[in-house]
Design a protein that fits this description.
Chain A folds into three domains: about 190 residues, Rossmann fold (3-Layer(aba) Sandwich); about 60 residues, no CATH class; about 55 residues, Zinc/RING finger domain, C3HC4 (zinc finger) (Herpes Virus-1). Helix content of chain A is about 35%, strand content about 20%. Chain A has 15 helices and 19 strands. In chain A, the strands form six sheets. Chain A has a six-stranded mixed beta sheet, sandwiched between helices. A three-stranded mixed beta sheet of chain A has the order 9-16-15, with no helix packed on it. In chain A, strands 10-13-14 form a three-stranded antiparallel beta sheet, with no helix packed on it. In chain A, helix 3 crosses helix 13. Chain A starts with a helix and ends with a helix. Chain B is of the alpha/beta class and about 300 residues long. Chain B has two domains: about 230 residues, 3-Layer(aba) Sandwich (Rossmann fold), CATH 3.40.50.410; about 60 residues, no CATH class. Chain B is built from nine helices and ten strands. In chain B, the strands form three sheets. In chain B, strands 3-2-1-4-5-6 form a six-stranded mixed beta sheet, with helices on both faces. In chain B, helix 7 links the parallel strand 5 and strand 6. The chains are: A alpha/beta (about 425), B alpha/beta (about 300). At the A-B interface, strand 5, strand 9, strand 10, helix 10 and helix 11 of A face strand 3, helix 5, helix 6, helix 7 and strand 9 of B. Strand 9 of chain A pairs antiparallel with strand 9 of chain B, so a sheet runs across the interface. The structure holds zinc ion (ZN) (7 copies). The site of one zinc ion has 6 residues of chain B, from loops.
Chain lengths: ~425, ~300
């Protein structure tokens, strides 16, 4: 193993500028996986896979603690309705190949992934795309809620030309974002590959204008840190970062997918009237109000005026009611009602008896908790329902399910009063 | 997620997790007796186990004040069909015993509280959550496992107070690619079950005649996921997307939404009870003023 690593390093030095990844595909599988690190020797000298479950669980507990500590102080308040413009710098610097195959291709690829993730995490939010080319900013797509149309426009014409202009981009985005409703969070995310900006006027003025309109501007650089970008982010409350490689770029981008903590002054809270239309039967026929056409197949019916529309979210063309799909909203509710972390149960003897009384199986999955073999029945318990859970269920419950099966299996009218407080 | 990749294996072997509605308040109002209903269900379970010797069945009781596992075919030794003396196949012996215990305990618990006039809901969110934990464990067990699916045999009306929990379960099932089938035998329709089946790609059906329940179950819900590609299953006759308001737990098709946290309310409030935001007193009662502004912007 050490031989192999040394050789890899040697190879890297030889052609480092040329290509940092100068290793064969078959080798990379081993380098990336580091499969040998997942092995350990047992008493008899045989190789065994390491039992990672305890480590995974410890890591998960740490994540959970950080999250719940952050949530404890403040009531959960997140800007869930976001209007985000993604500005992509397609000036000639984007053609550079320090990212493989080119900065341009890598930016497009990860912005695509970001757009999908964004709409998953931010129902009701909208994205628009702007590109910078030849010193001019172009609107690729207007604000909208459909990932496909953005991705199509983005992939349409990939080319890198001319200079970059931060000011032109900001002016354009500012003009667009000034029209969005006041309850929305206005954000700009700039992917900047150039090391300079060729502006027609005073960019400082533009930055102040953005600040006044409460645009939160963030920049991800692809080459090196620039003062003007840093200044822009500081002034408008955004994040500034520079990606060192592809993986880093991806992480930096995805950091912007979850809703940012809402800063009260940034958006006015409001109650918005909305309707949850029913989906019509498959194969039913109706005249939709959006295309004024006869459509066969599923559509949605406005609950107020009973007009038929083809897609959600939309605004009813007849009565103006905002129509959304309620499951779309519900996707974010686990942010609002997180379940408290489970308490770790001290293992072994002293508690063994009481646990035996309460049941020796995980309440969720029925796995035995008096685990024969390795870990002597490590388990956790829910503070509210006092049921015991195995470590795997603990992780699943907090990271994917977001319900405590024990608490959900008890009838309690108290949940209603809890909400009305 | 590893569990998704591993689903390529053995795609006609099923793990059926059946959620059985045992709510006594519902069963006291039906035309068909619970025991009759149960005989249809047991015959159906036998049919599923008989279709493939690797098939597995787990039954979870959805009660009024509790939920519990009452049967797991992987725990009973082979020879399910042999008689255990009482004249009942061994399979049902243990199931009925557990079910009886469960019903007694559930009744005990529900006595402790006074209940309203309308038929109370059963704890669907609890049994769904348990089923998903069980399925998650099956996914953890390695690459070779049966294809899991959930079948809700539900008659009780939706409990709007379970809205968030039920939706959370539905989304988790969707991420795990576990379909939730639902057979609704109650009188109203169930928005929960319609949404669950629609979102997870399961089948939703409301049998017209309960005395033929066994036929409905075997022709629709016995189909394994592999065969579903070739079989004509009932198409949804519309999906009820109504939500529950957070303030009164009412089912609504129109409401007010907090722009900060997306909480749903049935009426105008000054302050959001979920996130504490104080709402601006602009005339945004109706969205029309916003929509005018928005219309100036290019079409969305
Ligand atoms: Zn249309
Ligand atoms: Zn309408
Ligand atoms: Zn468990
Ligand atoms: Zn609990
Ligand atoms: Zn209220
Ligand atoms: Zn209400
Ligand atoms: Zn709120």
């Amino acid at each position: 193993m050490s031989n192999q690593r040394k050789r890899l390093n040697g190879e890297r030095e030889e052609d480092d500028e040329e290509d940092a990844e100068g290793i064969g595909e078959w080798e990379r599988a081993y380098v990336d996986d580091r499969s040998w690190e997942a092995l350990q020797e047992d008493e008899s000298g045989l190789l065994r896979p390491i039992d990672n479950s305890a480590i995974y669980h410890a890591q998960y507990r740490r994540r959970l603690r950080i999250l719940s500590a952050a949530a404890a102080g403040t009531r959960i308040q997140k800007g869930l309705i976001r209007y985000l413009y993604i500005v992509i710098d397609f000036s000639r610097a984007a053609a550079e190949t320090d990212f493989r195959p080119s900065r341009m291709a890598i930016m497009a690829k990860h912005v695509e992934a970001f757009i999908r993730e964004f709409f998953d995490q931010n129902p009701l939010s909208q994205i628009g795309l702007v590109s910078i080319k030849n010193g001019v900013a172009h609107t690729l797509t207007d604000l909208g809620g459909s990932p496909e149309s953005h991705i199509q426009a983005l992939m349409g014409k990939l080319e890198a030309l001319g200079d970059s202009s931060l000011q032109n981009a900001l002016e354009l985005v500012h003009e667009h974002l000034n029209q969005v409703p006041s309850y929305g969070h206005r954000e700009v995310l700039i992917l900047y590959s150039a090391l300079c900006t060729c502006d027609p006027g005073d960019i400082m003025e533009t930055i102040q204008k953005c600040k006044k309109s409460k645009l939160r501007c963030s920049v991800i650089g692809l080459s090196a840190e620039m003062f003007i970008c840093k200044h822009l982010c500081q002034e408008t409350g955004g994040l500034y970062s520079v990606a060192v490689d592809e993986v880093h770029l991806k992480d930096l981008l995805l950091e912007h997918a979850p809703p940012p903590p809402a800063i009260a002054e940034f958006a006015v809270a409001n109650l918005i009237k909305m309707g949850f239309p029913q989906r019509a039967a498959e194969g039913s026929m109706a005249i939709c109000s959006c295309h004024k056409d006869v459509k066969i197949g599923a559509g949605y019916t406005c609950p107020r005026c009973k007009a038929r529309v083809c897609e959600l979210p939309t605004e009813c063309t007849i009565c103006g009611l905002t129509l959304v799909s309620s499951p779309h909203l519900a996707r974010s509710y686990h942010h609002l009602f997180p379940i408290a972390p489970f308490d770790e149960v001290p293992t072994l003897s002293s508690l063994n008896d009481s646990r035996r009384k309460l049941g020796k199986c995980c309440f969720g999955c029925q796995q035995s908790l008096l685990g024969a073999g390795n870990k002597q029945g490590a388990c956790v318990t829910c503070r509210n329902c006092k049921h015991y859970f195995c470590l795997d269920c603990d992780i699943y419950i907090h990271e994917s399910l977001h319900n405590c099966p024990g608490c959900e299996s008890i009838r309690r009218p108290k949940s209603v009063s809890l909400m009305e407080e | 997620m590893a569990s998704v990749a591993s689903k390529l294996y053995s795609d006609d072997v099923s793990l059926l997790v059946l959620l059985l509605d045992t709510n006594p308040f519902f069963w006291s109002t039906t035309s068909i007796k619970f025991s009759q209903f149960l005989s249809h269900v047991l015959a159906f379970l036998n049919a599923v186990l008989g279709l493939n010797q690797l098939n597995q069945v787990v039954v979870i009781a959805t009660g009024y004040s509790s939920c519990d596992y009452i049967y797991d075919s992987s725990l009973t030794p082979n020879g399910n069909f042999e008689s255990s003396g009482s004249g009942m196949p061994a399979l049902f012996g243990s199931l009925l015993e557990k079910l009886e215990d469960f019903a007694a305990k559930d009744e005990e618990l529900s006595k402790e509280e006074e209940h309203e006039d309308r038929i109370a809901s059963s704890l669907l969110s609890g049994s769904l959550s348990m089923a998903l934990c069980y399925i998650q464990r099956v996914f953890r067990s390695g690459h070779l496992h049966p294809q899991p699916r959930i079948l809700c045999l539900q008659g009780s009306p939706d409990g709007p107070e379970q809205y968030v929990a039920v939706m959370n379960s539905i989304f988790s099932a969707q991420r795990l690619m576990v379909p939730i089938d639902s057979c609704y035998i109650g009188t109203q329709n169930s928005a929960f079950l319609q949404q669950a089946s629609y979102i997870t790609g399961g089948v939703h059906h409301t049998p017209k005649q309960l005395d033929g329940l066994f036929q409905y179950l075997t022709t629709i819900f016995a189909t394994d996921l592999h065969s579903r590609g070739f079989v004509q299953l009932p198409k949804p006759v519309g999906v009820d997307f109504r939500a529950s308001c957070f303030c009164h737990k009412k089912t609504i098709d129109m409401g007010y939404i907090c722009s900060v946290c997306l909480s749903i309310f049935c009426e105008h409030h000054k302050k959001c009870s979920t996130c504490g935001s104080v709402f601006g007193q602009s005339k945004l009662d109706d969205v029309s003023s916003v929509s005018n502004k928005k219309r100036k912007a290019p079409d969305t």
